[in-house]
Write a structure and sequence with these properties.
By secondary structure, this protein is mainly beta. It has a domain of 98 residues: Immunoglobulin-like (Sandwich). The chain contains one helix and ten strands; from the N terminus they run E-E-E-E-E-E-E-E-H-E-E. A hairpin with a 6-residue loop joins strand 7 and strand 8. The radius of gyration is 31 Å and the shape is elongated.
Amino acid sequence: MVDFGGQTIGTAGQRQTIRIANTGPGVLPITKVSVHGIDAEAFSVARDECTGASLAVGETCEIEVVVNPSVEGRLSATLRVVSNEDSKDIVLFVKAIAAQPVPALNPGIPVPTLNLSMLTFLAGLLGWLGLSRHRRWMGLGRTE
């Protein structure tokens, strides 16, 4: 099983490499690599060096699969590596969980920042207005 984990809708995930090895006996001819299943459109073969290969015993080839979900939820499909000998087909399960992107905080609104000179100015302004710990500001007037 190939587990892509959590993925954001509309963005391609990391490619997962799958290595196919011929452990014998005999040659393993590979005629096709494809993705099937209810969520097959969310997964794709990004690189395929196996289709058309005839692997001798001990040889390998690689396939890269990527997920790019368009819907939210749990996604699953099967990756099928077809040999011209039916008994040698390889079926792998692929899965991912797709979620909506996290919205940016206050998009388009700048976040104010204060620096030391602004803080010094504000402290001086409060002192000039007569606001100190011995006086209270009440509505529009001041009381002592």
